[in-house]
Please model this.
Amino acid sequence: MEPSYRVLARKYRPQMFQDLVGQDALVTLLQNAIRLKRIPHAILLTGVRGVGKTTTARILAKAVNCVGPDGEGTEPALEPCGVCPHCCDIVADKHLDVLEMDAASRTGVEDIRELIDSVKYRPVRSRFKVYIIDEVHMLSRNAFNALLKTLEEPPPSILFIFATTDAHKIPITVRSRCQRVDLPRVSVATLAPFLQGIAQKEGVSLSESASRLLGHASEGSVRDSLSLLDQAIALADETGVSEGLVTQMLGLCDVQPLLTLMGHLFAGEVAQALDAFAGLYAKGMDPLMLLEDMLRLTHLLSRAACREAEVMSEQESAFFETFAPRLSVPMLTRTWQILLKGQSELTLSPHPERAMEMLIIRLGYVSQILDIPPTAEGEHQDGAKKKVLMTS
Ligand SMILES: [Zn+2]
Model:
């Protein structure tokens, strides 16, 4: 490891709007506000952790105060130049007119009063005085009240940027005085190529399926996806980051045994499904983790049954093709319900493996009764066998 090693999330932290991943609508909105000179006094950025709220806040702070590389700029810039004194000082966290506060650690009215007292002074050396308050929902009620007075009559050249994961915890009186911008979770389809780009810059090969698994596991958070990639790179050998490595790292069941088990279930082959589970259990697979994987796969297949171009690994899409005629949406939603219910049964049961077996039996049975052709004259290859099973 190099002495100057920085985690990927810091190293590749976006410095310009165009670098933000999967936030095109947000960028358009903020750049329009800058272009039309309609920058609000208060902006509320909401979204799950790691989607880029504070990063966006800092880019915006730079953009509104940027004077361009020549230092001649008189208007807020659509993109911060990154080299002028304002941009540099904001990145270095030493700009006099850009104040950042974490409401999670400073929740009291005194903290906010100190900040509000400084609001009445004009910016020292820039166009806008910017207050970035992270996790703003953590402020106390008194602190919000104090803040509200300022928001009601904001002095000119003030920009409040609030960031929160819990917008509904902010009093409506405060919320209604902010322009709210929601940052969506970033999709796997966006994260996967993004991670591959980062891996390439780091000189590490990252397989496409591995990047999709990382994208799935990070649940729409860019920061989480980069942390996971960090971990994966640390574990990788000279061949790079493979699907197998990520599967192992995430503790996911290797996808092929899972597909085999689910294949038997969807075919109504209960005995074979029980054998497949016994094999996995003997190898040390935790029934609850397996259930988690079964849920994930069912969700994926349900989506694939409803729309084309679902992001799946090669094995998963091959599986889907094979079972597509059987995988009706009612069957999949039923499977989902049973699995979800099974989750609490497994947690409660003193013998999770027995609970899992019961679950498999129930699932296999359900796919037998639901596996009926849509029309009476519809052909069904296993029709005869099914009838026997149902009546037996
Ligand atoms: Zn600049």
Observations:
- The longest helix spans residues 287-306.
- The radius of gyration is 27 Å.
- The CA atoms of residues 67 and 73 lie 4 Å apart.
- The domain at 188-250 is CATH 1.10.8.60 (Helicase, Ruva Protein; domain 3).
